[in-house]
Specification:
single chain; 140 residues; mainly alpha; two-stranded parallel sheet; 2 strands; 71% helix
Length: 140
């Protein structure tokens, strides 16, 4: 049975999404979370392999966008700064200070790797290692 987690602090928005999703997918198991704590509690209950796979695919996608397409679109002198600032701004919407600081530090490192190697491969590998370590090695 397919399942969906709707995470939002507005009950009316969650209800509308629940209704639309249930209409679109038969036998959908819809669960709701109204806070970051409830989302994280549900994430910890999930399969570590699935969560890690999603994190790794996300890391590849982020590097292809930030250190690939966006980096190439910016003037060379401002590419590291520009990609890092956009990365930090996107992360800031989580309101998680630790993630924002990590985005600033890691975004700078990824940008420096991109400039030094002229490739997205080094930042991508570093991002994958970082994601794996944060998921498996850091205490919860």
């Amino acid at each position: 049975m397919p399942s969906l987690l709707i995470a939002d602090d507005h009950p009316l928005f969650r209800a509308a999404l629940r209704s639309a999703a249930a209409d679109a997918v038969a036998n959908l198991d819809v669960r709701e979370a109204d806070s970051l704590d409830s989302v994280l509690a549900r994430a910890d209950a999930g399969s570590t392999v699935v969560v890690l796979a999603i994190a790794l695919v996300n890391g590849v996608g982020e590097e292809l966008f930030f250190r690939g397409a966006l980096y190439a679109a910016l003037p060379p002198r401002s590419a590291i700064f520009g990609t890092t600032i956009v990365y930090v701004c996107v992360t800031a919407v989580t309101f998680n200070v630790a993630l924002v600081i990590a985005a600033l530090v890691m975004g700078t490192i990824f940008g420096l790797q991109r400039r030094a190697t002229r490739s997205v491969l080094a930042p991508m590998v570093t991002h994958l290692i970082w994601s794996t370590l944060t998921l498996l090695a850091l205490p919860r």
